[in-house]
Structure prediction request, 79 residues.
Amino acid sequence: MGKYLAIILGIVAMAAGIFLVIFVWWREFYELVFGCIPPLLFFGGLIAVIAGISSIKDAIRTKKLEEEAKKEAEKKEAN
Prediction:
């Protein structure tokens, strides 16, 4: 019985929340959602810049390691 009661009360709570957002607090909800967009864009862009810099550093490091491996292989061939 407890499982069914939890499902029913959950549905009632969801319906009440939707009702309150649509009919009572629409303006506040609207402002909250649109107020979150600039910080999300900023932090999303910051993460993209950090990821790009990290990718460039990894590419440079990989290229250096490949060059060192080629030099070592040439030294082994020369000996």
